[in-house]
User: What shape does this take?
Amino acid sequence: MRFGTLMIAAVVAAGVALPAFAQKTYSIGTNKQGSLGFGVGTAVSKLMNDKAGLLFRVKPGGGSSSLVPQMNAGKVDFGVNNAAESRFARFGTGIFEGKVHKNFRLVGMVYPLRIDLAVPFDSPIKTVADAKGMRMGNKFTAQAILQFIQSALLANGGLSQEDMKNTPYASYLPTGDDMARGKLDIATVSPGAGASKKQHAMLKSRGGLRFLSISDDPAAVKRMQGVYPESFVMTIHPSPATPGVVGPTNVIAYPYFLTTGTHVSADVIYKLVKTMHANKAYLKAANSRFNLFEPTKMKATSPVEYHPGALKAYKELGVM
Assistant: This one.
């Protein structure tokens, strides 16, 4: 039993009434164990249990298509969704076409997600524009959001999916493997992910992976944001943790949000935001991906409404 839980139990035993929100167990719905969302949910739950005296638990399950409706209906308290999923969910567009989730709200950005186009190191493709007419995976019927992101990457270089020699895939991860096997010329790959490290090793005879640096020219960024409005250019640098990044490399980045439903009280959301804002080191120790967490950037730009409890916290913190 964690310290926060012990404290609550001690107060109850002493006959002191707790506010209703402190007696409830709050659920964070995520994808299956081992996923990015599960890692976020676990770190945030641990933080709230240990530092805020609130009871949180992770509820692993399906993807956004099942978790967002549960949040909207008040059956799950929190979730983790990228910026495009959040917009689609709230307004009933994209992968949530015709299904408006009016009770869906944002809490804050936990960290930016980063992804890029990669090629074998010895490939003649040096820029995104160079890839025109090359073999590439597309559609990603089981991961529609990845087609959306890939289209934004291509748009940065003045291309569209129609400019490529396309092969349909259910998900994007196998396209990196097939590129490493020589079946494709270019693929969408997440720098530093386990799959990218495997693909880098598979390409050892060709020098490994090489990530393309997208353009930060205003016109290129405008094209990219025309596809993915919340996206931005982020520069990553060579590191043993990101094989294939051979120099300062611009990649597409976009917010990964902690989300909630309107049924969760403003007091809980306020306390959650304030606790996260004050505890980056704790979160980073719980999950290394929180090294990208920036407390002053939790209120990222989005057309989706923030929960009132979050807005109250951000106003006090001066990050509005």
The chain has two domains: 3-110+256-317, 114-254. Strands lie at 25-30, 55-60, 78-82, 104-120, 135-139, 165-169, 187-189, 209-211, 232-236, 249-261. The CA atoms of residues 115 and 178 lie 18 Å apart. DSSP finds twelve helices and ten strands in the chain.
